[in-house]
């Protein structure tokens, strides 16, 4: 079995979206789509499963909230209680309003940073990693759809030429 | 074209009738003199109530006027003092209880009036932002803002009645109180009846004028060959938003903050705005879902509803941010003239005060944070009802402590007032919806809006 794939290259996101829908309707398997910017609704058009990143973010936020609570309790109540503005810090709950901004910021901090790290790990991205784009023009103004070929090369080439692609290439993938 | 179903119409009339009966009962059953108050207090003779009422005395400006007499009484015999104090206490409770039906009416009236104003502000923002997603909802928003003229008239009448001393909602309107109150005297250049009522007239007239012309242009745009009416509306809306944000702030001092005339908060205008803005957006969502369930609004899809739900979620968080910002600064600084506001609310209004935070923040945040839930009708209706009730409670918390003090209760007058204005609101809004097609068909963004997909 060959590892041939088709690269169909488009120069407009609307044409790409239509092409993706047609390709799916024709039951060709889309391996990947490379775009210079996030195209709204592309994930749904490609039939990708909805992201679970939001659930992670919620859990990370809860971790941050807990961490902020623990941290302020340790710093301000247990380790070094102080009397600020006539409000001696003997109990957490009585001083809680003063700690809310910190608890909130920790929530945001944890959710944001851990979510980005999770996203990089899931996308297998790390510093100095070599780019996977098959064509450098996808970092500029072109859109590329990669479709698997199953002994139907001619049929696919003519199909993609009909979807408004500016260029259709057949590539042997390693 | 939408037709007002007779079932809903009957329902709105029933609400109004029940509301009127309850309001009438509230006014009739309010005690007329000290003897009735005494009988009332004796009837609920446990000591706890008495103490709670006495503790409210210190925070009430009205009481300060009686301070010299109080001092005299102290000089006298103990028994005389106790007797005078009892008389003063009875008079104080009488004032609170005779204010109660008025305050109940006032809270419900201002809540529904401001809710439609919040919708109008949201609508104006959509126009100015040239939003592509929302034009299919414009007629729903215009339907809701149709309540603004009706609500404004009733509200203005209540303000005039306040000025004519039918009640004591605004103690600074009472010259007897002002005479003995130095703090109010220094503010009387701004807080005096003529200036106050003229301001109210200008604000209400300005908002209603924008609503009238914006609606007129939107309807004219339907039959137009070019976008001139749309452009006109863009300019009007931009002008309105400037007028609105200034008048809204002053309105919040005039109609709400001045009920506690010694107290002030610099972000109060934003706080009130957040409260009625989220109520307005929630109402847009609820009316949209109702019309959708009746088979209207065929171009409104779940993406539009999803966006409204995102606004409900976001502005609920915004409200909480302001609620907390106002609370924390005052709590931390702990200055007597500021902190009394929250002491009254935490001690006398503990349940509604913290209950409002649960209903307006915790509940919507936990329910609406989920993307899928933002598209499920029954979840949205449930969240919407809680948010609307929560913001009614929020207005209750802003107005009641300064008018009825510790004699508050959510009883017949309060519930009846809400029912009356809800019935009126339903009647006016859904009558207005029948007057024009539910799609602003010639709006330049209508195609984008129809195909809006998230």
Could you walk me through the main structural features you see in this protein, from its secondary elements to its overall organization?
The complex is a heterodimer of chains A (174) and B (454). Chain A is of the alpha+beta class. In chain A, 49% of the residues lie in helices and 16% in strands. In chain A, helix 3 runs antiparallel to helix 4. The radius of gyration of chain A is 25 Å and the shape is rod-shaped. Chain B has 454 residues and is an all-alpha fold. Chain B has one domain (6-450). Chain B has helices at residues 6-29, 34-43, 47-56, 61-64, 67-75, 78-128, 138-145, 147-163, 175-179, 182-187, 193-222, 228-255, 268-293, 302-333, 336-348, 350-368, 377-403, 412-433, 446-450. The relative contact order of chain B is 0.16. The model of chain B is unreliable at 47-67 (pLDDT under 50). The chains are: A alpha+beta (174), B mainly alpha (454).
In short:
The complex is a heterodimer of chains A (174) and B (454). Chain A is α+β, with helices and mostly antiparallel strands and 174 residues long. Chain A has helices at residues 13-25, 42-46, 53-79, 92-122, 153-161; strands at residues 4-10, 30-34, 83-84, 87-88, 143-148, 167-172.
């Amino acid at each position: 079995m060959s590892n041939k794939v088709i690269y169909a290259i488009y120069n407009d996101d609307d044409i790409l979206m239509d092409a993706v829908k047609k390709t799916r309707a024709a039951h060709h398997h889309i391996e990947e789509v490379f775009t210079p910017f996030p195209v709204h609704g592309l994930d749904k058009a490609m039939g990708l499963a909805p992201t679970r990143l939001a659930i992670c973010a919620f859990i990370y936020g809860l971790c941050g909230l807990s961490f902020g609570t623990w941290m302020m309790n340790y710093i301000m109540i247990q380790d070094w209680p102080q009397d600020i503005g006539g409000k001696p810090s003997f109990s957490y709950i009585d001083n809680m309003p003063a700690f809310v901004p910190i608890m909130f910021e920790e929530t945001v901090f944890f959710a944001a940073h851990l979510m980005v790290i999770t996203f990089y790990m899931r996308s297998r991205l790390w510093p100095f990693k070599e780019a996977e784009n098959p064509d450098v023009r996808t970092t500029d103004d072109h859109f590329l759809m990669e479709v698997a070929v199953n002994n139907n090369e001619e049929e696919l080439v003519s199909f993609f030429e009909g979807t408004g692609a500016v260029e259709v290439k057949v590539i042997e993938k390693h | 074209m939408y037709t007002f179903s007779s079932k809903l119409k009957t329902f709105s009339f029933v609400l109004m009738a029940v509301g009127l009966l309850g309001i009438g009962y509230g006014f009739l059953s309010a005690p007329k003199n000290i003897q009735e108050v005494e009988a009332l207090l004796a009837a609920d003779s446990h000591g706890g109530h008495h103490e709670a009422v006495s503790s409210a005395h210190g925070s009430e400006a009205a009481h300060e006027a009686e301070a010299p007499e109080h001092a005299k009484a102290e000089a006298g015999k103990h028994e005389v003092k106790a007797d005078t104090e009892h008389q003063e206490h009875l008079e104080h409770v009488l004032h609170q209880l005779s204010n109660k039906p008025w305050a109940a009416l006032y809270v419900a009236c201002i809540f529904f009036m401001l809710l439609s104003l919040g919708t109008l502000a949201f609508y104006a923002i959509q126009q100015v932002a040239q939003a592509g997603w929302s034009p299919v909802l414009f007629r729903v928003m215009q339907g809701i803002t149709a309540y603004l003229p009706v609500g404004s008239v009733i509200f203005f009448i209540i303000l005039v009645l306040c000025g004519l001393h039918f009640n004591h909602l605004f103690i600074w309107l009472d010259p007897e109180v002002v005479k003995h109150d130095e703090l109010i005297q220094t503010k009387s250049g701004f807080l005096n009846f003529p200036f106050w009522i003229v301001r109210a007239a200008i604000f209400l007239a300005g908002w209603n004028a924008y609503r009238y012309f914006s609606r007129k242009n939107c309807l004219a745009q339907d039959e137009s060959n070019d976008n001139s009416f749309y452009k006109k509306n863009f300019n009007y809306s931009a002008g309105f938003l400037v007028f609105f944000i200034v008048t809204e702030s002053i309105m919040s001092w005039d109609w709400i903050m001045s009920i506690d005339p010694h107290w002030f908060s610099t972000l109060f205008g934003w706080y009130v705005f957040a409260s009625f803005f989220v109520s307005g957006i929630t109402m847009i969502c609820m009316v949209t879902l109702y019309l959708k369930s009746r088979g209207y609004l065929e171009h409104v899809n779940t993406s539009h509803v999803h966006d409204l739900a995102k606004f409900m979620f976001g502005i609920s968080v915004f409200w909480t941010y302001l609620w907390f910002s106002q609370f924390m600064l005052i709590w931390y600084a702990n200055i007597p003239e500021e902190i009394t506001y929250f002491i009254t609310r935490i001690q006398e209004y503990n349940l509604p005060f913290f209950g409002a935070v649960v209903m307006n923040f915790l509940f919507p945040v936990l329910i609406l944070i989920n993307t899928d839930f933002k598209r499920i009708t029954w979840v949205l209706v449930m969240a919407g009802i809680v948010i609307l009730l929560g913001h009614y409670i929020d207005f209750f918390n802003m107005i009641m402590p300064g008018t009825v003090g510790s004699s508050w209760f959510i009883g017949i007058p309060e519930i009846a007032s809400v029912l009356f204005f809800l019935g009126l609101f339903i009647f006016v809004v859904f009558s207005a919806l029948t007057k024009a097609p539910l799609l602003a068909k010639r709006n330049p963004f209508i195609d984008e809006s129809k195909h809006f997909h998230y």
